[in-house]
Amino acid sequence: MTPDAFVMMTEVQVAVERMVTDPSWATVQSILLGEMGWLPLALGWLAVLFAVHTAGSLLLTLGHVVAGNGSEAVPQPQTYPPLPDDAFDVCVVGAGPAGSVTAYYAVKAGLRVLLLEKKKFPRVKVCGDAVCTQAQDIMEDMESATGHGSVLDEIMREGLGHAAANGGLVSPAGYSYIGNSVGDAAAGKLSRSAVIAIKRVVMDEKLARSAAHAGALLVEEASVEAAHLDTAQRLWQVRTECGDAGEPMTYKARVLVCADGAPSRLAMQLGIVKEAPQGTCSRAYVKAGSHNYRADGTVIYNKDLLPGYMAIFREANDELNYCCYIIPGNPKVRNEDLSRMHHALIKDDFYLSRALGLKPDMESMKAGSLRLGGVAKSFDEQLLIVGDAAGFIDPLTGEGIHHGMHSGVLAAEVLRDAFRHRDLSARYLENYQRRWMREFGNDFRASMRLALVLYRFPILLDAATLCIEKQGDEFLAEWARIMTGQRPKRYLFRPKIMLAMSVELVQLAIARALRLEVKPIDQLRKVK
């Protein structure tokens, strides 16, 4: 490093540390205009341009919010024929997390509920198994089928869930930070784990049994073949094939709730959902004792996969769950590349290969679809769509369990009001769409934009990781809150976060321009 370059880097570091300590406009003016000459002034103008661009993007998002949400519809009571004795108020198709939560809270609202599941429990689902805090809250509220505590209490008591304590991320350039985001809430850490790893084979059955215990009629091995609305009786006719023999059975219900997963086969058959799922993901469990991984969870951003990523989560029995996510935005990576990327990265990605070890005992890859960002229409006459079927998967993180379960709560609330006011029209049920748009749909829009930005500018992830490394566990906890949906993505633009990340971005950009970039340190090796 030349003396001039050393002086310049030192001045930049001192200045940005001052701005983080005292982020007042007076301090910024003093530094940019008085203390550091032409370079910081130029950087200051770049920062202003970036701020203007960001503000414009946020205003566009706000415009979508104002245009997309609107005020809720007022009920207009209608006349419905008497409900036959063999009919239900609500038929939920699919007993995944979203469907079971919808059924549970609809029963609690006093409705007669049928819950149909294509497979027989226990059954396997492809998923990252990461249960975020919002989903934990719902599971804590739902009573277990045994009547002894909540669903979450029962899972943890039986040793079937693993609460993540230490984890982190690896950036495209190889910068990494593994820390402990759980601890003293007063110190800025999380008061509990942001993520609990629970296998879907466990979780889905517990939730479905909870709904049945509450009063829903759970029918397993009931594959829905078709459904149509009888406009004379104002009842849905839901045709299924039940059991191994495929015996036909028709159920009747006033309202149909589609909760049949990301392919959204039933809603597509009805012509409400019109597009195929946009993304895909893999999953492979690694047996305990056959890997080198010491942390609880790590997100690995490989530059060839962006805006997708890889993730490793530790399960309750010390197994690992390795996932590879393909998220739209990279023209060089298609859904058809999933198997190739999944297997190639095991060997080619330095951090992933180190974590898995030389001879991981890994099951064969399984794949699942990702319907991202929310569907254009999640309601119709006497119909709602919830969970993955409605595309409630974050386009930036690929996480959907907590959004799906949240949508189940919202759907049950809207149905409670709709039955109370005797208005099951599409006009009134659109309130469901308005509510999920307010709760998390607008955040999906921000995620879509961020995913594209991160693909084009991976240096942003490098800078964010360096910032987390410098700021420590408190900053990691805030990052975890945003990435797991506890905070909206706009929190990334708050001064405390954005200024600190901008500091690292400026320093990293200068270092790369001068070929002075610091070699990444393998943080994964430090975890005991």
| Category by helix and strand content | alpha/beta
> What is Rg?
25 Å
Q: In what range is the share of β-strand residues?
A: 15-25%
Mean of all residue-level pLDDT scores: 87
Name of the CATH class of the domain at 87-124 and 216-277 and 371-445: Alpha Beta
Please report the total strand number as a whole number.
18
Q: Helical percent range?
A: 40-55%
InterPro entries: FAD-bd (IPR002938), FAD/NAD-bd_sf (IPR036188), Geranylgeranyl_Rdtase_fam (IPR011777), Geranylgeranyl_reductase (IPR050407)
Protein name: FAD-binding domain-containing protein
GO molecular function: FAD binding; oxidoreductase activity, acting on the CH-CH group of donors, NAD or NADP as acceptor
Pfam family, one: FAD_binding_3
How would you summarize the topology of this molecule?
Layout: H1 3-21, H2 25-35, H3 38-69, E1 87-93, H4 97-108, E2 113-116, E3 130-132, H5 133-141, H6 151-157, E4 161-163, E5 166-170, E6 176-180, E7 195-198, H7 200-214, E8 217-219, E9 222-230, E10 235-242, E11 247-258, H8 265-269, E12 279-286, E13 297-300, E14 309-314, E15 320-326, H9 338-348, H10 350-356, E16 366-370, E17 379-380, E18 383-385, H11 401-421, H12 426-456, H13 459-471, H14 473-483, H15 495-513
Parallel strand pairs: 1-2, 1-11, 2-8, 5-13, 11-18
Antiparallel strand pairs: 3-7, 4-7, 5-6, 9-10, 10-11, 12-15, 12-16, 13-14, 14-15, 17-18
